[in-house]
Amino acid sequence: MLDLAIRNARIVTAADRFDAQIGVKDGRITSLAEDVGPAAEEIDAAGLWVLPGGIDAHVHLDQPQGGGAVLADGFESGTRSAAAGGNTTILPFALQEKGQSLRAAVEAYHAKADGRCHTDVSFHLIITDPTPQVLGQELPALIRDGYTSFKVFMTYDDLVLNDAELIEVFDTARREKALVMVHAEGHDAIKYMTRKLEEAGRTAPYYHAESHAVVAEREATHRAISHAELTDVPIVIVHVSGREPMEQIQWARRRGRPVFAETCPQYIALTRDDLKGLNMDFEGAKYVCSPPPRDTDSQAAIWKGLRDGTFDIFSSDHCPFRFEDKAGKDVPGARTSFRWVPNGIPGVAARMPILFSEGVSKGRITPERFVQLTAANPAKLYGLYPKKGTIAVGADADLTFWDPGREVTMTHALLQDGCDYTPYEGMQIKGWPVRTLLRGRTIMAEGEVTGGPEAGQYLARGISAAAFPG
Ligand code: URP
Ligand code: ZN
Ligand code: ZN
Questions:
Q1: Which of 239, 241, 275, 339 to mutate to test the pocket of ligand 1 (most atoms within 8 A of CB)?
Q2: 291-311 average pLDDT score
Q3: Is ligand 1 within 6 A of the CB of residue 231?
Q4: Are the beta carbons of 260 and 225 closer than 8 angstroms?
Q5: Ligand 2: distance of its center to the CA of 344 in Å?
Q6: What value does the mean pLDDT take over residues 386-401?
Q7: For 447-454, which contacts have Cβ atoms below 8 Å and span 24 or more sequence positions?
Q8: What's 420's DSSP letter?
Q9: How far is the CA of 58 from the centre of ligand 3 (A)?
Q10: Which fold, 54-360?
Q11: Residue 140: is the preceding peptide bond cis (ω within 30°)?
């Protein structure tokens, strides 16, 4: 007999929507049929849509920060918030600190995660110190162990790689079939803008948006694409903020280059004006992230890209700092210049409701496209498909039940993260995740996260099927 039967489901996948029952046994989907037969447990999904559980492929938890800042979420609160927002898998980052071995970074990160996960997790690496030992031995060994993607930075003093290092890292990624995620903003351009703005006395959080100029993002996107062409490797440009970097990605694709693209809620729901706060005051720090939100023209471009396939995935870039906290946005120096305000905003729980409401409910994207962007494509890009990201026989029974008509006012309390605010406070949302199953077990019902911090498992991943087909 089945462990679980879900009746009266309107199922939505990346390709289709159809009415069927879902049979679950031992955590996996074993049947999709008009009638799956008897089961030990039943869920009546009448009036709800059943979608693959969300996969948030860009999340920062318990990651060391510079300047006295501490992230507001570790694994317990971060995965709790993820579950509240309809996610079943998240991919945070194991950061290599300079001089540290990659293996040590990964082991330390496992120790932080073990026994503290309400959802499944898998780790990207962040490479900050690409020594010959790291690129020649440690990275290939870790890729074979299932750490098949990593991020590199083109800015931030303590993270930036120079062009020679980027090229060597890309070359290793091609050889080992690993997927490189690129933070594409030009470091020297940002440093120049920061100095000029400070000299002019323009130090409020708002000027963060001017210092991280779109030209710096456009230039770095082009440079990363060029290095990827030189070394013949697929890359993902993460957190793309608007029209100009998108045009670089489209240009690369016209040249036949495998360049993948990610965007995030802040680029459709916020603009740089939010960084003005109430009156160019410190409230603006609540919206400081990199790249920063741009303008309404860029928002329109992002929507077009979400529709036309320019974007493959929609992630949160959840990177939460408490606002009223000397180890958060208010670190020493932050009120003297935007330069010291920690970069990053929360979003792991808000990601899918925002895209559902602004996208599906407002008719900008189809439900199937929503599934592609939030679950199926992240699974394909990062080596989790078809175990994750779809509703099919053999897949894990990771399912999110959506009430497409539910109207909710976004408040921070609903999101259950460790932060003390949401940038989306007061936003009117239509369409809400009301229940989440992880391997057939309910981990969230009506906002209550019920699975416990041992419900989630660590997932070793395969090679990216999207980036390295065949
Ligand atoms: O401002 C941001 N995005 N902070 C998180 C780190 C990153 O670059 O993704
Ligand atoms: Zn980044
Ligand atoms: Zn990030």
A1: 239
A2: 98
A3: no
A4: no
A5: 9
A6: 98
A7: 447/84, 447/414, 447/416, 449/80, 449/83, 449/84, 449/118, 449/416, 451/83, 451/118, 452/118, 453/75, 453/76, 453/79, 453/80, 453/115, 453/116, 453/117, 453/118, 454/115, 454/117
A8: S
A9: 6
A10: TIM Barrel (3.20.20)
A11: no
Domain boundaries of the chain, sorted by first residue: 54-360
Mutate to test the pocket of ligand 1, among 59, 62, 290 (most ligand atoms within 8 A of CB): 290
* Among 238, 213, 217, 208, CA closest to 343: 208
Q: What does the DSSP 8-state code read for residue 357?
A: I
> Which residue minimizes the CA distance to atom 9 of ligand 1?
317
Angular region, 103: left φ>0, alpha ψ -120 to 50, beta rest: alpha
Ligand 1 centroid vs 342 CA: distance in angstroms?
9
pLDDT at 470: 78
pTM of the model: 0.98
Per-residue pLDDT averaged across 40-48, rounded? 98
Question: What pLDDT was estimated at residue 273?
Answer: 98
Which structure tokens are listed for 290? 């990199």
**Is residue 343 lining ligand 1, measured as CB closer than 6 Å?**
yes
Residue 382: what pLDDT? 98
Considering only CA atoms, which of 424, 426, 421 is closest in space to residue 328? 421
